[in-house]
Amino acid sequence: MNTHSTEALSVHQLTRVYGAGAGADRSNQVRALDGVDLSFATGSFTAVMGPSGSGKSTFLNAAAGLERPTIGHVVVAGHDITEWPEARRTRFRREQIGIVFQGFHLMPYLTAEQNVALPLRLAGVRPDKQRVRDLLGRVGLGDRAKHLPGAMSGGQQQRVAIARALVTAPAVVLADEPTGALDSTNAREVLQLLRESVDTLGQTVIMVTHDPVAAAYADAVVFLVDGHVAGRMQNPTADAVASQMAHLDDLVAATVPVGSVA
């Protein structure tokens, strides 16, 4: 499927059951996601939150095309990637999906600029050196282009990872606890960069986080509980998110409308 849409990413009846193979014992099955319907508008910043085991990581993996759902569909930039073979999904991911990991995942033997250019090289595209330098400058590391990751702080490494995620101008950036390994100062700088990529570059960012302060940088928060969308919050504040996280049991998925996230 390839349709024109203002949605950067949408999932439809997204369900992921582990231990669901042929002849599997149903009592041992784990339903990590259960019929999730969500869409994310182009140029939006959304935080995904929930307790441990709520399905956050499974959602991110499915959205990135890293694993297939048991049921449902994943549509990125108008393309339904659900049934694509792994090789095709990998190529598409390199071009249309930027991923920012908590652990940075930089190549230790490559310089900052080489790490940023890596997705292009893997895709068989000759890197635009000026674009790479411009991105490093945008994340405040123009003077660190020739440095190896080991010569940079954790915050600087995460900023390189963000530049790397943006270098292909992807349809969507998926950030998995991007501030989890950072101190408060570096975390704030990283969150401001993600916010700027939305406001200035028109990027679409979906960030899994457990931190209410981080969530407050987003336009909206989606709460997952036991694999269901249990609620949403527009224009979040840290206090409001923290309060909602403390009362997730009060949210009932069936009574909360689900769908587009502006």
Describe this structure in words.
This protein has 262 residues and is of the alpha/beta class. The protein has a single domain (7-261), classed as 3-Layer(aba) Sandwich (Rossmann fold). It contains eight helices and eleven strands. It has helices at 56-63, 86-96, 112-122, 129-138, 154-166, 184-199, 212-215, 238-245, and strands at 7-18, 30-41, 45-49, 71-76, 79-80, 97-100, 172-176, 205-208, 220-225, 228-234, 260-261. Strands 6-7-8-3-9-10 form a six-stranded mixed beta sheet, with helices on both faces. It has a five-stranded mixed beta sheet with strand order 5-4-1-2-11, with helices on one face. A hairpin with a 2-residue loop joins strand 9 and strand 10. Helix 3 packs across helix 4 (129-138), helix 4 (129-138) crosses helix 5 (154-166) and helix 5 (154-166) packs parallel to helix 6. The protein is globular. It starts with 6 loop residues before the first strand and ends with a strand. Mean pLDDT is 89; it is low at 253-260.
Compact overview of the structure:
This protein has helices at residues 56-63, 86-96, 112-122, 129-138, 154-166, 184-199, 212-215, 238-245; strands spanning 7-18, 30-41, 45-49, 71-76, 79-80, 97-100, 172-176, 205-208, 220-225, 228-234, 260-261. The chain is α/β, with parallel strands linked by helices and 262 residues long.
For the CA atoms, what is the radius of gyration?
A: 18 Å
What is the CATH homology-level superfamily? P-loop containing nucleotide triphosphate hydrolases
Name the CATH class. Answer: Alpha Beta
CATH architecture descriptor text? 3-Layer(aba) Sandwich
| Main sheet strand line-up | 6-7-8-3-9-10
The structural domain count equals 1
How many DSSP H or I helices?
8
What is the β-strand count? 11
CATH topology: Rossmann fold
Largest sheet: 6 strands, mixed
Q: What distance separates the N and C termini?
A: 23 Å
**Helix-strand pattern:** EEEHEEHEHHHEHEHEEHE
Gross morphology is globular
Strand fraction band?
15-25%
Helical residue percent band: 25-40%
Mean pLDDT: 89
Question: What structural category characterises the helix and strand content?
Answer: alpha/beta
Unreliable runs, pLDDT <50, ≥5 residues?
253-260
